[in-house]
Amino acid sequence: MKAASLLLLACAAAPLAQAQQQEQEPESQPARYLIGVSVSSRPEYDGAASRQTRLNALWALQVGRWRLSTSGGSALLGFGRESAGPGASTQLIETARLRLGLALRVDNGRSSNDASTTRGLPDVKRTLRARLYANYSLAPDLNLGAALSQDLLGHQGGLNADVNLGWRFYRSPTLEWTSGIGFSAADAQNMRSYFGVPERAMAASGRPAYVPGSGLRDLHAGVGFTRPFARHWFVFGSAGASRLLGPAAASPLVEKRDGSYAAIGLAWRN
């Protein structure tokens, strides 16, 4: 409830914070946009042994402080380091070192038919999430980010949080490499929805009952690159690994605590 209240207060304060900053800022810059496609490979869900390969469309649009994007497009347009994530977002505070913002996105939840190991479990309903995020520049290429994400509709999505340290360790006119490490945590509602097994679903799922509490969710790390090959065109890629922790790792739904992902793609930006 405290986290939800914090997010609602941030929503209420957004117009005032933006109005104060607009008085100090020059006229808005031209719109920025990006479109692209990627191929990714990752586990079917966190903790699954089986993997899935997908072709993903990605895009992003920024007009002043307002942004719309898919998850991949967010980082490639240049504001991914700010922990905004996918959806619609705006900056509430922006200084030379600190950025604070608010984002809204649709969370598709989970269908019990998404994977063979989750069949028989209750579905997690689609919902609307608010994400309050902050980023602090420790150095020109070193950033510390944190975020809180809350289910606004009470559809059993709960609250999750993450903290990440990002480092751009190589940059030239033709190549950029970045890396990051971080951890995530979740409240009991989120854990029960994605890692729990209610007693009423024991027979249908073939899994023992499990009611997790709040705690750490995972530790993750990754690297990524972008390489331009024309004025507007570039290729990009990323790879990473994660390890489930705490109540998530103890779930009977987890087949592997360690997971990995990889993606490569092509995009155009103005």
TrEMBL record:
Family: Belongs to the MipA/OmpV family.
Keywords in alphabetical order: Cell outer membrane, Membrane, Signal
Protein name: Outer membrane scaffolding protein for murein synthesis (MipA/OmpV family)
Signal peptide bounds: 1-19
GO CC terms in record: cell outer membrane
Database matches in PANTHER family: MLTA-INTERACTING PROTEIN-RELATED (PTHR38776:SF1)
InterPro entries attached to this UniProt entry: MipA
